[in-house]
Amino acid sequence: MELFKNFKDFKMDVLKEVGNIGAGNAATALSQLLGKPIDMAVPKVQLLNFEEITEKVGGAEELVYAVFLRVEGDAPGNLFFILTPEAAVNLLSRVAGIELSGGEELSEMELSALNEIGNILAGSYLSSLADFTSLTMYPTVPALAMDMAGAILGYGLLQFGQMGDDALLIDTTFLEGQNEIEGQFFLIPDPESFPKIFKSLGVPFDND
Amino acid sequence: MIDEQTIIKVGMADLNVGSQGLIRTTGLGSCVGLTLYDPGKKLAGMAHVMLPSSEIAREGQLNIAKFADTAVPELLNRLLALGAVRSRIVAKMAGGSQMFAFAGGSDTMRIGPRNVESCKLALEALNIPLIAEDTGGNYGRTIEIACSTGVLYIRSVQKGAKEL
After folding, report:
1. Among B47, B52, B50, B24, which residue's Cα sits nearest to residue B36?
2. Is the keyword tRNA-binding assigned to this protein (chain A) (predicted)?
3. Which residues of B have a catalytic role annotated?
4. In the predicted model, what is the mean pLDDT of residues A152-167?
């Protein structure tokens, strides 16, 4: 892809740091919600093609819960908070202290709580990014979906679809205790956002 | 029937044709899975269309499988190259859902319905009859077409399985 072929390791490192700061804040917010420490894996920044991105969450057919927010402002993009069904149940029973109805599917109330947790996390992720880069970034009202990972993430890749077959992914994983809550943040900035992000961080964006 | 069926995979923004086994694409959301089938020669083809029109493409090298207006003619050509008879070819499609509902959504938000519309226009332009479809909704689908019968199998998390 034209846009990324000249990305040097240095620029990948900058993006990794951007992801790190956002996720660090979100981990703190989650930790406060849960009242227990939350670990965070060092974020991965990767240039992946569409197939590889869905592989990251276990394959295109894998069932996931996803909170999706469209990021608007100076550096638009798509933000996903993705949980496996088990992680979603764990998160709800801990955070909201909800006695789960126990059915195969989550109830309306439980879904709404999950959406709100995603909203809080994504909000803290974004606001730290915005502080760090001095760019305005604000989330749209979150939308929650439970479906095949491919169908959900495919949606986040539309802006990239116009430009090529790859997307840049900033991917962070949260861990609580023994892997009990494993959630992933996917930040997929729109292609035109990269020059702005680099510029705001003082990194020259001149195709070298 | 052969037990060990060949499965030909079609990725996102990809297309393929085959003469035996199944052709499958997984995780269709707003994307459309479009199939063409020649019941006489038992040849099938499938495209995983991601965007409605190649006019909005900003890439240097166009991936023709990605756009409805370019993928449909290409898929037809690939089938004809295998020996399919043009007048017998029929189309089916699935997908084109709206995964997330937003109030006051922009055009991007209704990409699913636009993909469906564009696929229909592309089929009309080529005079290929659309004999079945399962489009719209707000859920993801995985689809498979059987090369021996032309039956399109659709699986979804929320709505179970169906056949077209």
Report:
1. B47
2. no
3. 31
4. 73
Which CATH architecture does the domain made up of A2-200 adopt? Answer: 3-Layer(aba) Sandwich (3.40)
CB-based contact B66 A2, cutoff 8 Å: no
Place of tokens 């035109």: A192
Is the pLDDT score of B82 beyond 50? Answer: yes
pLDDT band at B104 (very low <50, low <70, confident <90, very high): very low
ipTM: 0.74
The residue-averaged pLDDT of A107-118 equals 84
DSSP bridge pairs for A186: A80, A171
* pLDDT over threshold 60, residue A32: yes
Q: Would you list the domain boundaries of chain A?
A: 2-200
Q: Which of A83-92, A127-136, A197-206, B63-72 has the lowest mean pLDDT?
A: A197-206
Distance CA B72, CA A191 (A): 27
CA of A50 vs chain B CAs: smallest distance (Å): 7
Predicted pLDDT at B42: 93
**What is the token pair recorded at A30?**
């989650």
Tell me how close the Cα of A67 comes to any Cα of chain B, in angstroms.
Answer: 10
Report chain A residues whose CB lies below 8 A from the CB of B28.
150-151, 154
Please indicate whether, in this complex, the C-beta atoms of A150 and B27 are within 8 angstroms of each other.
yes
Who among A60, A163, A165 is closest to B27 (CB)?
A60
- Residue whose entry in the numeric block shows the structure tokens 């991601």: B50
* Residue A136 phi, psi dihedral angles, 5° rounding: -80, 130
Residue with the larger pLDDT of the pair A48 and A149: A149
pLDDT score of A71 = 87
Neighbours of B96 (CB within 10 A): 30
Chain A and chain B share a number of CB contacts under 8 A equal to 104
Sorted by where each begins, the domain ranges of chain B are: 7-163
Q: Which fold has domain B7-163?
A: 60s Ribosomal Protein L30; Chain: A; (3.30.1330)
Of A66, A162, A107, A32, nearest in space to B59 by CA? A162
What's the CA gap between B101 and B110, in Å, rounded? Answer: 9
A151 vs B29: CB contact, 8 Å cut-off? yes
DSSP A78-125: EEEEEE-HHHHHHHHHHHT------SSS--HHHHHHHHHHHHHHHHHH
